[in-house]
Amino acid sequence: MPHPEIEGALTGQGLRIGIVMARFNSLVTESLLAGALSGLRRHGVADEAITVVKVPGSWELPLTLATMAATKKYDGLIALGAVIRGDTPHFDYVAGEAAKGIGNAMMKAEIPIVFGVLTTNTLEQAMDRAGAKSGNKGYDAAATVIEMANLLRELRA
Question: How many C-beta atoms surround the C-beta of residue 156 within 10 A?
């Protein structure tokens, strides 16, 4: 007898999704946001079921996501940001703490919080991942949050 396999559907109807976008490196993050919104809409998430919150930078993402998750209004959240390596260790602190904070927020909230924060060495690499050459990681984050929200619904049913 075959074992059961469970996957989340890529159907966004009825889902409530929040997006938190860092304004720092807005040339990149606005493109990520456009990709995420396109992905959510393409998979059936209604415009009125999407909330977009903009924060100063990636450092502020974890607290904002945790606060939104605590409201219990969302089936899933997306974190969008771009941390680009410079000549100082600032990159390591911001990228590492953002990742850790977002992961902690997700585990505490028990809803999917998708990590759509680009961590690149150059602006060109970030732009490539925000719609230029390597697809749009915002769009990918939208598909992931939909799949994970549906998967968790299935597992909890």
Answer: 7
